[in-house]
Design a protein that fits this description.
90 residues, 3 helices, rod-shaped, mainly alpha, 70% helix
Amino acid sequence: MPGLIRGVARTAVVAGTATAVSNNVSRRQAGRWAEQQPQQAQPQYAPPPPAPAEGGMEDKIKALKELGELKAQGILTDAEFEAQKAKLLA
């Protein structure tokens, strides 16, 4: 009986140590990946179409619709949309 208890205890110690080591490795890898994430920022999208030069009202409406679609798709942020809209209407 003492041999059986000793064997079970040894197995528990080995399993506990392996779990602790595995958790440390996982945490360390997660930390490294978190450090690398800001360097690999979101993909850059093409800039919105340039404002038409001295175009008519129809051209401005068409450009505003395109900007609205880009915003709806999540390509433009609210701030970028407002800046492009201001340029277009100025």
